[in-house]
Design brief:
Elements: E1 6-14, E2 20-29, E3 32-41, E4 45-48, E5 54-56, E6 60-63, E7 67-71, E8 76-81
Parallel strand pairs: 4-8
Antiparallel strand pairs: 1-2, 1-6, 1-7, 2-3, 5-6, 7-8
């Protein structure tokens, strides 16, 4: 079954063992998504597209703008800018 494309603010967390989790949610608050409605735990790989601005540290990165998240046939989680969306940027 295909995994749908999710849109929202994205947080990528890496634990001490190197396991990454991608969370998609609303209302980012200091690098945390207040309402997480989709999550990808320990994906094969994560591809953050060059047109996406991430903030934070290597252990916790988050998008400044709304983004879309989808998974390809190889299990790679893609974080991409939403085409045609006027920038919705929160203050740092």
């Amino acid at each position: 079954m295909p995994i749908p494309t999710d849109r929202g603010y994205v947080v990528v967390v890496e634990d001490d063992a190197g396991t990454q989790t991608v969370m998609i949610g609303s209302k980012p608050n200091g690098g945390n998504a207040d309402t997480v409605y989709a999550m990808h735990v320990s994906p094969n790989a994560i591809d953050i597209h060059s047109d996406v601005t991430m903030q934070g540290s290597s252990a916790r990165r988050f998008t400044r703008d709304l983004a879309e998240v989808y998974v390809d046939d190889q299990g790679t989680v893609h974080i991409a800018a939403i085409e045609g969306l006027s920038a919705v940027t929160l203050p740092a």
